Amino acid sequence: MLWFDDFISLIFPRICAGCGNSLWKHEEVLCKFCEYHLPKTNFHLEKENPVTRLFWGRAQIEGGTAFLFFNKGNRVQQMVHLLKYKGRKDIGIYLGAQYGQTLRNLTPFNTVDFIIPVPLHKKKYMQRGYNQSEQFAIGLARSMIVPVDRFLLSRTKATETQTRKSRFKRYENVHEIFAVRNPEKFEGRHLLLVDDVITTGATLEACIQALSEIPRVKISIACIATAML
């Protein structure tokens, strides 16, 4: 059936999510050049990295990290745009699987019990058809061999986009909009809270506040990318 695969590739060419060039048969989502040149943060190697420092005095977390640097015009921005708005769920799963290979052997991420994606409001979920953070969670779960739970956290009201809002305005926008379901299942567990891009941390902070109501819970954070200013 190789001839059939070649025929399909002519009609629906497989395109690199980073640069837009055609992919070779052995390549998945990204070409080797883009994969090699991903702007990795390596935050997972530092306990006191920019993600963990962002939450000092704001929320208690076991660990925090982001896989990539997000800058205007770079290939990571292109990938996140395709993931969020163009139905490219495979990008989130691919990046999650890549980063999960690294995190699964590192403290504190190697003690995670559940992976929790930051939820979308049901209206936005219906419009988009999926949650981009959940796709990243699925990829992480495949490599870390840890289950995803997308029902623990729910977003109780729709909010305006966080783009171009100040840190305080972002906090106001998401303050007390998340609720926890069936918290007894997660007592004493270590939860890995995941999102697509972290900037001010306001959304994640609001999620942590809701999750912290669970007795003896531990929370860590992992994001696809960071655009912290």
Describe the overall structure.
The structure is a single chain. This protein has 229 residues and is of the alpha/beta class. The protein has one domain (40-226): 3-Layer(aba) Sandwich (Rossmann fold), CATH 3.40.50. The chain is 37% helix and 15% strand. The protein contains nine helices and six strands. It has helices spanning 2-11, 32-36, 50-54, 75-85, 89-103, 122-128, 132-144, 167-174, 202-211; strands spanning 63-69, 114-117, 153-155, 178-180, 190-198, 218-226. The strands form two sheets. Strands 1-6-5-2 form a four-stranded parallel β-sheet, with helices on both faces. Strands 3-4 form a two-stranded antiparallel ribbon. Helix 4 crosses helix 5, helix 5 (89-103) packs parallel to helix 7 and helix 8 runs parallel beside helix 9 (202-211). The chain starts with a helix and ends with a strand.
Walk across the major sheet and give the strand order. Answer: 1-6-5-2
Query: What is the CATH level 1 assignment?
Result: Alpha Beta
* Overall form: globular
- Helical stretch count? 9
Number of strands: 6
